[in-house]
Amino acid sequence: MIVKFKENYDYFPDEESRMAYVFNRTKGEFQRHLDPKYLTNRKDSFVNTKEIIAYLASIYKNQQEIEDTQNKFE
Questions:
Q1: pLDDT digits over 38-70, tens only?
Q2: Alpha-carbon distance 14 to 2, whole Å?
Q3: pLDDT band for position 3 (50/70/90)?
Q4: What does each C-alpha distance from 38 to 7, 21, 47, 58, 70 come to in angstroms?
Q5: How many CA within 13 A on the CB side of residue 37?
Q6: Rounded distance, CA 58 to CA 53, Å?
Q7: Are 57 and 69 in contact (CB under 8 A)?
Q8: Where are the domains of the chain?
Q9: What is the pLDDT of residue 32?
Q10: I need a surface site. Which of 8, 45, 59, 62 has the fewest CB within 10 A?
Q11: How far is CA 52 from each of CA 32, 39, 42, rounded to the nearest angstrom?
């Protein structure tokens, strides 16, 4: 993911565009987990892409689930 942002820096000039990309690449259950902290102006809203990915990883604590999540995400 980070490599994609580095290689395509002109498409992702700021953190907001990178966060939008990550959010829009998720589907179904994964996006439903992100909705409350991404689509609102809450105090605990996501501030960067690393936080979004870490949040998903914390939900899917089992290492295999984390790997499956990353594979589905990509």
A1: 987 788 899 999 999 899 888 877 667 667 777
A2: 13
A3: low
A4: 25, 12, 9, 16, 19
A5: 18
A6: 9
A7: yes
A8: 2-73
A9: 92
A10: 62
A11: 12, 12, 15
